[in-house]
Amino acid sequence: MDRRDRSAVPRPRHIGIIMDGNRRWAKAQRHLDASLGHKAGAEHLSNFMAWLSVRNIDHASAYVLSADNIRKRDSQEVRYLFTLIEEIIPHRVEAAQSWRLHVSGDLDLLPAPARAALERAIQETSDRPRHLTLAIGYDAHADIVSAVQRAVLQLKAGELDGLTVDAVSEQLAGGPVKDIDLIIRTGGDSRTSGFFPWQTKSAGLYVVQHPWPAFSESDLDDALSYYATKRGRATK
């Protein structure tokens, strides 16, 4: 994409990122410890937020850790992921200055120190203009069911006509713009893996072959060009 022409092309308002391939990146870099890939991936969030800011994209969602992964992955790997959630990810968002942190998922699945670090970062960034939602301890079915339950509680008795798509969307965790326009998945896999299904109903999917720690600013521009081309065709 010609950077001089950015303002003239369709641009996603909200981007979702599925950060896959950390372990494969570590192996390709000949690291004996796969956890170094996860660490590089967590730190790479800083770059991603900076690139979005430069492009005036103010809403992003990122898949960090699913509830299934917490329950099923090797316990040592999960413990290390908890450490990253406690020691790196909240600080990266706080240091990004303009980004406000939201979390979607069951934080009760996390150890108390990781949960406290996220809650502190949510509070510390609460007055910022841009919105980053992290899926942590995330389960797609539970996300939707909980939103529907909260929406029902807002209704007056017998007024089920008020249970609308918008009413449910308002109860979902995250920033004010719920709908995700473009999903980027790194690591070459074309699955969405239960990534915010309610919010991504109309989203395009752009697959990057290399793993998340190798995702570059040029890759982001390629994804934006893909979105602009698809959006342009849809409006003709």
Which descriptors would you attach to this protein?
236 residues; alpha/beta; six-stranded parallel sheet; 9 helices; 6 strands; 15% strand; disordered N terminus
Characterise the protein shown here.
The chain has helices spanning 22-28, 35-54, 67-72, 75-87, 89-95, 112-124, 140-153, 165-170, 217-234; strands at residues 14-18, 59-66, 99-104, 130-138, 182-185, 204-207. Strand 3 (99-104), helix 6 (112-124) and strand 4 form a beta-alpha-beta unit. Helices cover 44% and strands 15% of the residues. The chain has nine helices and six strands; from the N terminus they run βααβαααβαβααββα. It is an alpha/beta fold and 236 residues long.
Secondary structure: elements and pairs:
Layout: E1 14-18, H1 22-28, H2 35-54, E2 59-66, H3 67-72, H4 75-87, H5 89-95, E3 99-104, H6 112-124, E4 130-138, H7 140-153, H8 165-170, E5 182-185, E6 204-207, H9 217-234
Parallel strand pairs: 1-2, 1-5, 2-4, 3-4, 5-6
Helix pairs in contact: 1-2, 2-4, 2-5, 4-6, 5-6
Strand content: 15-25%
Instruction: Give the overall shape.
Output: globular
Total helices: the number is 9
Q: What is the helix/strand order?
A: EHHEHHHEHEHHEEH
Output mean pLDDT.
Answer: 93
Helix percentage range: 40-55%
The tally of strands reads 6
Rg estimate, integer Å: 18 Å
Question: Short description, anyone?
Answer:
This protein has 236 residues and is α/β, with parallel strands linked by helices. Helices cover 44% and strands 15% of the residues. The chain has 9 helices and 6 strands; from the N terminus they run βααβαααβαβααββα.
